[in-house]
Amino acid sequence: MDEDSDSSDSDEDMDIINVDFELFNYDKDIDFHGVKTLLRQLFDADAQLFDLSGLSDMIIEQNTIGSTCKVDDKANDAYAFLTVLNAWEHREKKPVAQLIEYLSDKAVKASGDLAVLPELFTSGKAQVGIVLSERLINMPAEVIPPMWNMMIEEIADAVDDKEPYEFTHYLVVSRGYVEVESSLDQEEQKRKRQRDEKGLQFFHPEDEEMRKHAVGSGAYTFTKEGDSADSKRAFQELGVKSQGFMMLIEAGKFKTAVKAIADYIGAAAN
């Protein structure tokens, strides 16, 4: 039997599933659990430090800014979400107050360029938009630029209507990971050459492009992280250690940054 022919037949028999993703405004009757689940993923080990229920409610109530991405029907849980919260406007509300305190602490420790963040949060002269975005790991990156572009348009409309979205800065909260030696391999590694910890890599590939437009960016260790690398090895010889990551972008450069990630994702897909 011709092996090449078998291979060709196998390729022809392979089914291709086309999936249509749609963007929706937040719906208080549908989106609470989906948004809360994605927030828990975004904040990883530190999710327990936040009032995620209260934060989810705030995101959903602000239903004219940001969107969810779903498959098939609006009634389904979100596969991705994007929003921005005005830190100064909501500073006295518990979910945002927790975010401000947490991000201020991490910014000071993460990078010298981010050390200005606590002052931006508290001065009242700056208007910082805290951008929260997360998606399921297997989501294609191509769905992300339309979400960002739509949010930019929504912010512009809100500013025209005198709503509090005229930001001076955007703080994009994300996450990445580093590969580290797993404790399961310690005995084996004693017999091998010591490996250095690799640099930060991104769960969201567009972050690598967006950070180029930031006035400051940096990774930080989760406060509540345990020795969890072994459980995240995912068939790799090295363990995976998640880290938080944030980027501070001036408002005047935000549109350029969003266009850059759209171009970056488009080029990567070709």
UniProtKB/TrEMBL annotation:
Alphabetized InterPro entries for the sequence: BCP1_family
Keyword terms, alphabetized: Nucleus, Protein transport, Transport
Gene Ontology biological process terms from the UniProt entry: protein transport
GO cellular component assignments: nucleus
Location relative to the cell: Nucleus
Protein task: Involved in nuclear export, actin cytoskeleton organization and vesicular transport.
Similarity comment: family membership: Belongs to the BCP1 family.
The protein's name: Protein BCP1
Taxonomic classification: Eukaryota, Fungi, Dikarya, Ascomycota, Pezizomycotina
